[in-house]
């Protein structure tokens, strides 16, 4: 059974939130330390795919992967197909097709330059 994990990006602060938040079944994000709800408009959830890169690092939604040939891919969930996909500048493929020889080199939030 795969581990269910999330991480939370704050657009306002341009950083990952600490682990002091919870996500309830209705999808609300609550800051445990501040005892207040966080706005979904300013925070982006990234779900763990349940997969690891070639170095054993967790792969999350929004991560950027690099193949040995240098091609960069961003990870996303395709809700219509019900599976994790990666997109490059020219293609979109199932994440399962190349995880064995790809590595996480950043993410779409902290490393926007990788999207160019």
| CATH architecture name | Roll
Number of strands: 12
- How are helices and strands ordered from N to C? EEEEEEEEEEEE
Given the helix and strand composition, which structural class is it? Answer: mainly beta
Strand content: over 45%
Query: Helical stretch count?
Result: 0
Which spans have pLDDT < 50 for at least 5 consecutive residues? Answer: none
Radius of gyration: 15 Å
Biggest sheet overview: 5 strands, antiparallel
What's the shape?
A: globular
Q: What order do the strands of the largest sheet run in, or round the barrel if closed?
A: 11-10-9-8-12
- Whole-number tally of structural domains: 1
Terminal CA distance: 36 Å
Describe this structure in words.
A hairpin with a 4-residue loop joins strand 1 and strand 2 (15-16). With 116 residues, the protein is mostly beta strands. The protein has strands at residues 6-10, 15-16, 21-23, 29-31, 36-38, 43-52, 58-60, 63-66, 72-78, 83-87, 92-94, 103-107. It contains no helices and 12 strands. It has a 5-stranded antiparallel β-sheet, with no helix packed on it. It has a 4-stranded antiparallel β-sheet with strand order 2-1-6-7, with no helix packed on it. The chain has one domain (6-115): YopX-like domains (SH3 type barrels, Roll).
Short description:
This protein is mainly β and 116 residues long. The chain is 0% helix and 46% strand.
Strand and helix layout:
Elements lengths: L5 E5 L4 E2 L4 E3 L5 E3 L4 E3 L4 E10 L5 E3 L2 E4 L5 E7 L4 E5 L4 E3 L8 E5 L9
Antiparallel strand pairs: 1-2, 1-6, 3-4, 4-5, 6-7, 8-9, 8-12, 9-10, 10-11
